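Encode chain A's predicted structure.
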Amino acid sequence: MSRYRKKDVAGQALRPQTQMMSFGYDPALSEGAIKPPLFQTSTFVFKSAEDGKRQFALRKGLAQRAPGEEFGLVYSRFNNPNLEILEDRLAIWEQAEKALVFASGMAAISSTLLGLSRPGDIVANSEPLYGGTEGLLLNVMPQLGITHASLPVGTSLDELEALLRAADATAAERGGRLSAIMLETPANPTNELTDIAGVVAIAKRLERNGYRPAVCVDNTFLGPIWQKPLTLGADYALYSLTKYVGGHSDIVGGAVLGSMDAMKPIAPMRSSLGATLDPHTAWMLCRSLETLELRISRATENARMVCAYLERHPKVKKVLWLGNLPPGSDQARIFAAQCTGVGSTFSIRVHGGEAEAFRFLDALKVVKLAVSLGGTESLASHPATTTHLDYPPADKERYGITGDLVRISIGIEDSRDLIADIDQALAAV
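Encoded structure for chain A:
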């Protein structure tokens, strides 16, 4: 193994924080440059016509790789040095065999669910979901003969199993399968948790004819620092790299991670749909990975300070964050089993409704009024009228995405300044 792909030194396993600085990149291949250069190219020169023939045969599955043989560079829609370095380093954080990076988080989610599903299938999904994922399941996949079944967050495992068995039976009646279980935990924007290991156990009990539904987890809110779905048995961990991994509100990207076998239906879908990430964005994401833990840790500590203040404020009805789960509750049990940190994105309910929430948002001066999350700067938004606008009114009410709800993503500013800003904004409520 190349010294630039080593995972240990003198028998000591290297930690992800260390591997982010060099894993997968040999400076000798790029004139000694200490950081990977940007490979801004669409295509690559073959060593020979015979080499070109073999590379395409490998890509099409018409030939088998020899032991130790790597895919060669062909075309940036398939692979690129910047993509490969990024994928290697993401896989380290997630303890995955393989990562694939995409042009957006939604490209990763849609390619995964389409790669796993066929007409007649059902995708079961936790609720609430990010609005883009909800739109995919409600509006796009039904056009392809793929429908969905809702799994409300907070439902017991016994109830979840009953819902999943019912969905599986419905799919079987029409010649399909329960192809995937799509979880978002913590839920966006309410921060409710779903028991990943519990759902995996149910999925295994649903196996029939050699197939069981794949468990897919959107790990954007906590991962890969505070939660690792693959270690809990999930088949796929999915990301909007736009958020914490990118971390600077200057790129859009996505990823899916899992075993080598799990990637087999996803990689061709990525290439066929043209959803591959571009080299420049991959290069920027490698930069961001070097400071990932530092940024997330600082933002999480800031969020602790801000939430402690908000919980005492008379104009705040409730703070929806993972640091105040009732002791002994099912949510607290799930948190202890699968999370190692509370993250820095949460929601609050202000006293009143949409008008009061809007007055608070409009009065903010340091915290920016914008969608997205996980950047170095703090952001606040109104989910009911922005990211979750497409939810039917009854579903918004059912899942608590109401006019009084404000989502806040805390950044790496000084927490004292954030508290001062939020305090003056709450005075407008």
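The chain has two domains: 97-262, 292-426.
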